[in-house]
Specification:
Elements (H helix, E strand, L loop, with lengths): L14 H20 L3 E2 L5 E3 H4 L5 H6 L1 E4 L6 E4 L4 H12 L5 E10 L11 E10 L4 H17 L5 E7 H7 L7 H13 L2 H7 L5 H10 L3 E2 L1 H11 L4 H17 L6 E6 L12 E6 L8 E5 L2 H5 L6 E7 H7 L6 E7 L4 H12 L4 E4 L10 E10 L2 E6 L1
Parallel strand pairs: 1-5, 7-9, 13-14, 13-15
Antiparallel strand pairs: 2-4, 3-4, 5-6, 6-12, 7-10, 8-9, 10-11, 11-12, 15-16
Amino acid sequence: MNRWLLPEDIADVLPAEARKVESLRRAILDLYQSYGYELVTPPILEFLDSLLTGTGSDLNLQTFKLVDQLSGRTLGLRADITPQVARIDAHLLNRAGVTRLCYAGSVAHARTPVGSSAREELQLGAEIYGCATWEADLEAITLLLKTLSLAGMEKVYLDISHAGILAGILDGQDLDKETIEALYGLLQSKDRPRLSQWAKCLPTTVASALVALTELNGPCTEVLAKAKNDLPKHAMIDQAITDLERLVASAQKLSVNLELSIDLADLRGYQYHSGVMFAAYVDQLPQPIARGGRYDHVGQAFGRPRPATGFSLDLLTLANLSPIKVRQLAILAPWIEDAALNQAIAKLRDAGEVVIQVPAGEDLESAVYECDRELVKQGSSWEVKKK
């Protein structure tokens, strides 16, 4: 047995990539801090019922489970940090006003997510609690775009949807959880024949609206105009369209490199989200680089209703795609016992320089550092010279 082998789809992060990940993490969290976001670090393990509160069945399937030997209760190894942050806002902070929280931590998946090659991610995200208006959704999208820009992602495609559309269509229909999940699958695949057959048990207006959803995707202006014409009149649907119109009008001004579209049948996480939903794509990746949206009911599941919106992404994937170079210049120094040398090295390090000592006759092997200078003894002192 090779003891150095890791489980399937679990990988080490080696020096060059780890440095890139950490550089991005620091820069992104500093960006969030400039907007007033406060950093939280939830535990990687929680009681399972708390970890899955307010979430859909997909998260349950992706969560590693084990028994706590102290309490005998089932624990979960988190597959998503967002519900944990909602719990912190609802019960630990317990604030009345707007609260902005951000986080960066490892999550693990029991199964490799579709489109991914890893079961462990470094999830990074930002959440806004206590604001129910579309402006909070716009801030979340703004922060997401700035995050991707920091990583060097020039062109971004943002696909927007709204959970209120489907909620309005199904208002008054008594559908169980399994039925909703079947519907969600048909909408995702845009399988109109099967969807039409499936919806025969529903009122004609509802069935027609569900089929119409599969065709409501593309440029924002066209889709919203078609939605007003094709979808039934309902307060929830009208409000969702109004929210989307406001959001699109403002988001279009955020970046010249942003391409906006709407897909009203893209309802991944429908049972989790309660309003605007969005997914960001970049050219280098077939699946979304980030997902977000409004999830007001999660706080309610914790016993304290709170409007909430935000987004998350895998920092390991983002770093892998980022063109940013993080190789750092350093100073080479001999690895000998010399008081004057030690003093010179300490002074350079205090000034922010990287000084690496190596034994005489050896070269530095590093994927992160490049020594373009060296410490050379000049008389009784040590001086930095170009190599």
